[in-house]
Design goal:
The chain is 30% helix and 20% strand. It is α+β, with helices and mostly antiparallel strands and 449 residues long. The strands form 7 sheets. The chain has a 4-stranded antiparallel beta sheet with strand order 4-7-1-8. The protein has a 3-stranded mixed beta sheet with strand order 13-14-15. It has a 3-stranded mixed beta sheet with strand order 16-17-18. A hairpin with a 5-residue loop joins strand 9 and strand 10. The two termini are 25 Å apart. The relative contact order is 0.12.
């Protein structure tokens, strides 16, 4: 995505001469324009007083000359993936000079938007441009291998002209009996014991003999967004459709990127207007009017859901699984009698912490539920004499990331993104569960004002 995030990044420095040219134009201007068009977070050009390079020719600025060949340095700080993708073309542009690349830590990165949350920001400045795709004639073996490791949970299908013709998700593969369960469980099962890995691999063996191709399983009714559309338009489509990501296409259907909820929410983090510390040209946002620029910051209490799937620590595992698969969030929160948050449970938590001999049974049950068959695992299938996981407390993850009802939106989004969470439990000051707030809930921020 175009918006740089806090954390590890790379610094690209390019040293050239001020009079260097590219296609008849000033080179440093052309480089800056190239970086801008490709969504880089920003670039800085510095003009030196004097210096010399590999040619041992002194470059200097002379006051009585209208032109000079003074040294010029361009510096770009961005994500490693994007810089690596742009380097080959930059190598071509820089005929003489020097380029260096090193790692850095981004401590803070904000955009100076002066009139509120930048909901009119175009999609092209936020989207991810590095996207894995397949052709309609790709085999299912190739599709599954790509989708299991893809950064997105969907795989765009494009023709020879790179026009979008469809999209393949885990749900599409489950509906066509290609995958038994969602990809997160498949990946985790392969990392556990040998028996579990063999069980999941056996369920995938039929893919190699399948005559189906990508075009046979892809969804052709695809919602898309254009690069010039505003991020508010994109947020509206996501909220209305329930989609987590949108392909970005040109008017002729050419796929140029992908936009996710995380990309949109990163705008919230990088906009100083959502931070209580932003007191320069604007004020922090208020709960009643996100774009008004008032002094009271917006908190998660404005957007949280109060209906939450919960169990207590002694709930039997069979009931935990029932609650888990019925939960819209595919998670259940473990609380005590006073609704203090003790832990959280996902299907991956159950699979990981249950005894190895029961994992194939759990996988079969989850596969049935993924296909719409509401079978339940028999209580007798969990032998108490050998079972190490019988209750919610045995399988719950105690590393719960929470926010309070008074947590501001920018802090909640930053924590959500940094910890890789799709939702956060919301508690009061005494750790009593009040609700949950998810990425889709926070997208409503773009619709206000």
């Amino acid at each position: 995505m175009s918006l740089l995030r806090q954390g590890k990044a790379q610094v690209l420095s390019i040293y050239i001469g001020e009079s260097d040219q590219w296609n008849g134009n000033t080179l440093y201007v052309e480089i800056v324009e190239f970086l801008r068009k490709n969504g880089c977070a920003g670039a800085t050009v510095t003009r030196a007083i004097a210096g010399y390079g590999a040619g041992v020719r002194l470059h200097e600025q002379k006051a009585w000359q209208l032109t000079s060949d003074a040294p010029v340095m361009l510096q770009v700080i961005d994500q490693p993936e994007r810089l690596q993708r742009l380097l080959p073309h930059l190598f071509t542009m820089v005929g003489s000079g020097i380029m260096t690349l090193h790692e850095t830590d981004v401590l803070k990165y904000t955009h100076a938007h002066a009139h509120g949350l930048p909901v009119k920001l175009p999609v092209r400045q936020v989207m991810e441009t590095s996207v894995l795709t397949v052709l309609p004639t790709a085999s299912l073996t190739h599709v599954v291998s790509l989708l299991l490791d893809a950064p997105f949970r969907v795989l765009p299908v494009v023709n020879e002209q790179h026009h979008l013709v469809g999209i393949i998700s885990t749900g599409d593969l489950i509906r066509h009996d290609v995958l038994p369960i969602r990809r997160g469980i498949v990946k985790r099962a392969r990392e556990l014991d040998e028996t579990t890995a063999q069980h999941i691999d056996t369920s995938l063996e039929h893919i190699q003999q399948s005559p189906l191709l990508a075009r046979d399983v892809m969804n052709t009714a695809v919602r898309t967004v254009e690069p010039a559309n505003s991020i508010r338009d994109a947020a509206r489509i996501m909220l209305n459709s329930g989609l987590r990501r949108l392909p970005v296409v040109e008017k002729d259907g050419t796929l140029i990127g992908m936009l996710s909820r995380a990309d949109l929410l990163q705008v919230v983090v990088t906009s100083p207007l959502l931070s209580p510390q932003a007191r320069t040209t604007t004020q922090a946002l208020s709960q009643s009017d996100v774009l008004a620029g008032r002094t009271q910051p917006t908190t998660v209490a404005t957007y949280m859901q109060t209906a939450v799937s919960t169990v207590d620590s002694e709930t039997p595992l069979t009931e935990v699984i029932d609650a888990l698969v019925s939960s819209p969030l595919k998670r259940v929160i473990v609380v005590d009698t006073e609704r203090h948050v003790l832990g959280i449970i996902s299907d991956v938590d159950v699979l990981t912490r249950i005894q190895a001999e029961m994992r194939p049974n759990i996988l079969n049950m989850l596969a049935d539920w993924a296909r719409g068959n509401r079978t339940r695992i028999a209580t007798g299938a969990l032998p108490r004499s050998t079972a190490k996981a019988q209750r919610a407390i045995d399988v719950m993850n105690t590393q719960v990331v929470t926010v309070t009802t008074n947590t501001t939106i920018d802090v909640a989004v930053e924590k959500m993104m940094r910890m890789g969470r799709t939702f956060l439990p919301v508690v009061d000051e005494e750790n009593h569960l009040e609700g949950v707030v998810g990425r889709s809930d926070l997208l409503k921020l773009f619709m206000e004002g």
